[in-house]
Amino acid sequence: MLKRIASGLVAIVLAMPAVAAAPAGIEVATSMAGEAVPHLNSSSVLVLNGLTGEPVYQKNPTKRVPIASITKLMTAMVILDSGVSLEEPVTITDAEIDRLKNTSSRLAIGTTLSRRELLLLALMSSENRAAAALARSYPGGTQAFVARMNRKARSLGMSDTIYYDPTGLDVRNTSTANDLARMVRAAYGYPLIRAFSTTHEHSITAANNRVLQYKNSNALVRSGEWEINLQKTGYIQEAGRCLVMHATVGTQPLIIVLLAAGGPSARVNDAKAIRTWLEGHPSSWLAG
């Protein structure tokens, strides 16, 4: 069983040099002194001690890349900050049709759900029309909502992040692993985001009275083998496979950011490799 981080690790980590942005095609990875690092597919990676915020592993953490549906964590925070009623019904309209990527959705036009259910589907299953409807029904509409997303990012110190839409379908939604770790830490302060992002499945009744079963988009949540406190997946072609998590390994809370992974299973394999690596070197980062 893993134990809490030793004070000696903090000193080691604090002594680590900061990682500058790497030139294109150059991989920069650092970890605890003297330890071989795992080979990871993701282009940008950051693993933080969830208690202290100190880095345990980092690879190109300042590289700015598209973030796809990781965006929806910010969407959720803006909705919850606004104080709008989560019980108010919102109907899916033609405005929610994806005209950027022409992706499909099982959430049919005319379906009416509470704002609470839309938030659940956006976080749990990464339902794009749910996120779009949340923004459209915000006071002032989508444009005001996206402006509020960017103001929220600035307030969190996310200086290398910008949002153009609430779903992540817009490739111009970009950030860094460093900034997204800040976002995860902030989102962790919202109990509803923790609960909804880690819900395994949920059923809704669509406009045609069909009962639709939605499942969590994160295979690690579905497997039940991890203690995941908050998570969000993301994918568009330009962003690759992305994943952010607040998870507990042994007794240690960690923030894990994985960006621009390749194949469908790459981000999950990277997360598993990180966990195996940490569990295999407890003396390096945990008290003995």
Automatic annotation (TrEMBL):
InterPro entries: Beta-lactam/transpept-like, Peptidase_S11, Peptidase_S11_N. This is D-alanyl-D-alanine carboxypeptidase. Residues 36-261 form the Peptidase S11 D-alanyl-D-alanine carboxypeptidase A N-terminal domain. It holds the Pfam family Peptidase_S11. Keywords: Carboxypeptidase, Cell shape, Cell wall biogenesis/degradation, Hydrolase, Peptidoglycan synthesis, Protease, Signal. The active site is at 69 (acyl-ester intermediate), 72 (proton acceptor), 126. Substrate binds at residue 232. The keyword Protease applies. Gene3D superfamilies: DD-peptidase/beta-lactamase superfamily (3.40.710.10).
